[in-house]
């Protein structure tokens, strides 16, 4: 039995397929050498490290095979299955298969081009005479007139210097073996343009086995190469600033930790940058963001700075002491404060708050980022525009956040999440027109965590992307279970999910496969999230609205530029921020503002829902101002989704009775 076990271990260690076992949090317990090679980390140093950080995109819960783009670039097929209380991963490098698929597609494209245009570049090399003959078409593709004298030396000078050694090695190997060959290289044409060529050839041998000639074809694959490069770039680059994104930062930080590196992490947040967008518009805000990003990057030189999202950045400082890191942070703070903005039309000064956390062997990237976040929060609380170093007495808060993530991951995998429906009610008839679905954590553990406890923590990690997809899938499943067209749901979308490029397609695929009418599903985006991620919000809202989904701007009125956003966002409705509703019967200012919002919504053909309706007197006041739909504890408390689906939907529902609402009823969800 010992020999069999030894053989099994040897086979796994020599296998070309990567295998790994992690705990429920994704920390590596074991992996074989093939996986260590993929991760770029020695096997013995990989143990205890976070697999999702070292290999971004891998599932964190059991999931069927999915493809992940890894640095290199490499295409990996990753499958995650449960192994007792742990997780087992199988990682297969499918890059060669994808390359073959791409090659077949490119060959087919070349054939179509040749048939349609008659443009096929060919060449032949008489080896004994050292003379190369190029077709006129190929010369034109290289940027020369037909008939131009063009020898191999000139060709070599035009090949990109980084690619020339590979071309020469491939040709030398083919001449020795007489085999067919292929290579792809960049060429710098005489007009300065860079093109990418894919070449195929074969060597003809004489009777004595010596090479006589080589011949081949070449076609321009610049466009497909650019598409491939763009996909790789998009995976780890922020589209607005061109800086590395969160995914690139966590990978770099985890690799530094896996190699027993030490140093410091800075997390920077621009103070009150939202005011720039609100007061000057997003075109100016984007311009300022790009300029600030460029200024910060130039100040840091070769050190990694990434945009985490919104107005937040992070800097990795390998080998830096706390004193050195503080000096760098102070320099960045001064650079931002002194940035010239007078000619841009923005407020006279922008400042930045910074959190600093040390890291060293034994730390995880999640812990380091959490520590820097806590220090950043301390900078904000102390008055902004300052640098705060993480202190050990913050550890209790860090443990709490990590514990919340652990509970949330377990709930997502084990059925500990639940949805509750809060009705949206016609204020005249009392008819329930739809429900907003609210997320609850019901894992049976203490202490109880409400949405305000776990959602902000989830939104600071990639876990919120899986949570949002779970909410949407569960809502659609409920709509399938109850086909009554009067049952309509609104689900909330986090700011992080707005930046998920695949979320829109995911929604449409789920609706299409389930056969649910798109109009039965609405997405709610808070005004703050929309402002912070305006381009992403516009893209998602446009895609889903064209398909027939409803898009609502939540907490409308909470920002300075609220009415400006209505020009840019393709929404179908708004929810009036509860701050304007809670004193609607007594505040003349609130009444004027709500009346104006309703008139604008009506003029733009948008629905308007009043939030925080908690007293009968509010209903009367809202009716008088033209508000048709309301939501709040007076109109209906959140109830489990199963009760919403099984309830008989007949008006009225009794929500508009004149009963007195007690203190408990006045609480908000």
CATH class type of the largest domain: Alpha Beta
Kindly estimate the percentage of residues that lie in beta strands according to DSSP.
15-25%
For the secondary structure, the number of strands is 24
Residue-averaged pLDDT:
84
Helix content: 40-55%
Q: Tell me about the biggest sheet?
A: 8 strands, mixed, barrel
Number of domains: 4
CATH architecture descriptor text of the largest domain: Alpha-Beta Barrel
Number of helices: 25
Question: Might you state the CATH topology name of the largest domain?
Answer: TIM Barrel
Secondary structural class: alpha/beta
Radius of gyration: 30 Å
Q: In whole angstroms, how far apart are the ends?
A: 60 Å
The gross shape turns out to be globular
Poorly predicted ranges: 650-655, 657-669
Q: Major sheet: order of its strands?
A: 16-17-18-19-20-21-22-23
Topology (SSEs and partners):
Blueprint: H1 2-14, E1 18-22, E2 28-31, H2 33-39, H3 43-46, H4 51-54, E3 63-70, E4 74-83, E5 86-93, H5 95-117, E6 121-126, E7 131-134, H6 136-142, H7 152-158, H8 164-177, E8 181-188, E9 194-205, E10 211-220, H9 222-236, H10 246-258, E11 263-270, H11 273-280, H12 282-300, E12 305-309, E13 312-318, H13 322-337, E14 352-359, H14 365-381, E15 387-389, H15 395-414, E16 417-426, E17 432-441, H16 451-459, H17 463-481, E18 489-493, H18 495-498, H19 503-514, E19 521-526, H20 527-532, H21 534-547, E20 550-556, H22 562-568, E21 573-576, H23 588-603, E22 607-610, H24 616-624, E23 629-630, E24 639-640, H25 641-646
Parallel strand pairs: 14-15, 17-18, 18-19, 19-20, 20-21, 21-22, 22-23
Antiparallel strand pairs: 1-2, 1-5, 3-4, 4-5, 6-7, 6-10, 8-9, 9-10, 11-13, 11-14, 12-13, 16-17, 16-23, 16-24
Helix pairs in contact: 11-12, 12-13, 14-15, 15-16, 15-17, 17-19, 19-21
């Amino acid at each position: 039995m010992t020999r069999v076990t030894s053989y099994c271990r040897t086979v796994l260690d020599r296998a070309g397929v990567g295998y790994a076992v992690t705990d429920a949090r994704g920390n590596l317990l074991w992996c074989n050498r093939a996986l260590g090679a993929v991760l770029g980390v020695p096997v013995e140093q990989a143990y205890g490290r976070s697999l999702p950080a070292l290999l971004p995109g891998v599932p964190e819960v059991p999931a069927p095979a999915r493809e992940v783009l890894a640095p290199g670039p490499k295409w990996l097929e990753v499958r995650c299955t449960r192994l007792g209380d742990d997780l087992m991963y199988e990682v297969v490098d499918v890059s060669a298969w994808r390359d073959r698929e791409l090659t077949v597609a490119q060959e087919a494209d070349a054939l179509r081009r040749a048939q349609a245009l008659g443009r096929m570049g060919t060449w032949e090399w008489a080896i004994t005479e050292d003379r190369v003959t190029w077709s006129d078409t190929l010369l034109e593709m290289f940027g020369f007139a037909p008939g131009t004298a063009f020898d191999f030396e000139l060709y070599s000078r035009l090949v990109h210097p980084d690619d020339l050694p590979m071309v020469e090695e491939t040709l030398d190997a083919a001449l020795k073996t007489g085999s067919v060959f292929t290579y792809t290289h960049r060429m710098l044409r005489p007009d300065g343009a860079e093109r990418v060529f894919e070449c195929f050839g074969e060597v003809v041998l004489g009777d004595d086995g010596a090479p006589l000639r080589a011949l081949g074809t070449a076609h321009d694959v610049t466009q497909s190469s650019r598409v491939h490069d763009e996909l790789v770039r998009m995976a780890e680059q922020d589209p607005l600033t061109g800086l590395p994104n969160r995914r690139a930062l966590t990978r770099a930080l985890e690799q530094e930790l896996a190699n027993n590196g030490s140093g410091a992490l800075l997390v920077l947040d621009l103070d009150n940058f939202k005011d720039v967008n609100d007061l000057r518009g997003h075109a100016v805000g984007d311009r300022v963001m790009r300029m600030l990003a460029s200024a910060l990057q130039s100040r840091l030189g070769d050190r990694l700075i990434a945009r985490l999202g919104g107005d937040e950045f992070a800097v990795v400082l390998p080998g830096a002491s706390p004193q050195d890191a503080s000096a760098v942070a102070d320099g960045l703070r001064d650079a931002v404060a002194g940035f010239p903005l007078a000619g841009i039309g923005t407020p006279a000064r922008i400042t930045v708050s910074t959190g600093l956390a040390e890291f060293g062997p034994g730390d995880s990237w999640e812990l380091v980022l959490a520590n820097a976040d806590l220090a950043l929060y301390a900078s904000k609380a102390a008055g902004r525009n300052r640098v705060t170093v993480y202190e050990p007495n913050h550890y209790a808060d860090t443990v709490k956040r990590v514990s919340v993530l652990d509970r949330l991951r377990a709930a997502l995998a084990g059925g500990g999440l639940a949805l509750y429906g809060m009705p949206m009610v016609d204020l005249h008839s009392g008819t329930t027109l739809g429900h907003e679905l609210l997320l609850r954590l019901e894992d049976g553990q203490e202490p109880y965590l409400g949405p305000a406890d776990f959602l902000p923590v989830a939104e600071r990690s990639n876990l919120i992307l899986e949570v949002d997809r779970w909410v949407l899938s569960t809502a659609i499943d409920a709509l399938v279970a109850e086909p009554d067209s009067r049952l309509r749901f609104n689900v909330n979308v986090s700011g992080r999910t707005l930046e998920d490029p695949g979320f829109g397609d995911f929604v449409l695929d789920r609706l299409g496969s389930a056969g649910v009418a798109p109009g039965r599903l609405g997405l709610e985006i808070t005004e703050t999230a929309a402002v912070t991620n305006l381009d992403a919000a516009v893209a998602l809202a446009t895609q889903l609205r064209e398909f027939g989904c409803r898009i609502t701007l939540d907490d409308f009125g909470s920002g300075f530029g609220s009415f400006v956003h209505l020009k840019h966002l393709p929404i179908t409705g708004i929810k009036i921020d509860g701050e304007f509703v809670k004193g609607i019967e007594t505040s003349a200012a609130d009444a004027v503002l709500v009346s104006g919002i309703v008139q604008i919504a009506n003029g733009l053909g948008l629905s308007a829902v009043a939030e925080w309706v908690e007293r009968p007197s509010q209903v009367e006041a809202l009716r008088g101002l033209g508000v048709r739909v309301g939501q709040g504890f007076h109109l209906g408390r959140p109830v489990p989704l199963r009760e919403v689906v099984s309830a008989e939907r007949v008006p009225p529902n009794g929500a508009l009775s004149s009963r007195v609402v007690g203190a408990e009823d006045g609480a908000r969800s």
